[in-house]
Amino acid sequence: MQYEFSIKTSKQQEIIDLTNEVKKIVSQSKIKEGICLIYVPHATCAIIINENYDAGVCEDIISALNKVIPLHAGYKHDKVDNNSAAHIKSAIIGPSETVSIKKGNLQLGAWQGIALTEFDGPRKRKVIVKILKG
What we know:
The protein is α+β, with helices and mostly antiparallel strands and about 130 residues long. The chain is about 30% helix and about 40% strand.
């Protein structure tokens, strides 16, 4: 089963929690055992699983990535559309995450959440959730 929803980002770089939306999709799927794949079909954003309780963690992730991959650092692609750093960050993090489903619930840790990482916003982003029965 495949589901899709859209997210409107509001900043150039931000992390948006998707956990509740994905949990709702898993519940609606009625799948008790399986796998949940969360994917974004975009080249300048990514999906992460990390702490979703303290907003400081999200700020730290973006800050650390900006130190390693600064904006406008002489990248060749910046001559085309000025967003090369966003492409590099999303390539490193990746466009998807996979979570096991057990007894109808996502098997996330106590502090874990699923989030979209935006590196070239604001934009409208599509999120694809695929549920595979196991």
